[in-house]
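From the pipeline queue, job 12 of 40. The input is one protein chain; the requested action is below.

Action: predict structure.
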Amino acid sequence: MSEIRLIVLDIDGVVTGGEAQPLDLDLFEQLSAMNRAARRDPERPAITFCTGRPAPYLEAMLQAIDGHLPGVYENGAGFYVPADYRFMTLPELEEYLNGFADVTSRLEETLVQDEIAYFQLGKHYSLTLFANDPTRTSELGDLTAQALGPLSERVDLVYSTSCLNILPRGVDKGRGLAHLAGMVDIPFPNMLGVGDSDVDLPFLRLVEHSAAPANANSNVKDLVEYVSMEATTEGVRDILAHYELIS
């Protein structure tokens, strides 16, 4: 097995149960201890996040696990660098944002004003839609495509467990992780990635070792190297034990 030097975790559905769910503080302490060990000895694996959440949320979550390496936010659009407290965007981001303001306006005028869906707050380079009625989450893709019409050609619509992500076409977690790999000088063969939904597939395809908790969807389970029998945070513990990263 290749030496794992960086563990890249999604957040919702992996280290948390999702929106408005309590945090597993014992797991966060385990992850913090691993990051402290990695800071003392760079040969030990460090942990970071690759998330669809906005920058302030990533900042707080990295602080909670004593993260010192950069993390990815908004599904590959941006990077938070704890070492010197910087927020950066994907270098080529502007070329992908052409017309994205029109996408936002169209969805605001249709799905949001009609109280079919609402935006997750705090995002600048991508959108996340939640259905006002959660039982209609699976309809959001079709409803969004209908609302956008020709503007659909400018975006990718990708589901997470409880929401729909609207990404500038060409921006995804894989592109974000590829840029992060250069920032931290750690190649994909030395990475372990953990995710649970379709939006995680692009970065899980890149890493040498990939895993998923039991709550992951079938597309993720079919792709990854190891699927835990445990869900969310217990799944993370099991995955770390499977790769002999914790005892």
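Job complete. The chain has two domains: 6-90+171-242, 95-168.
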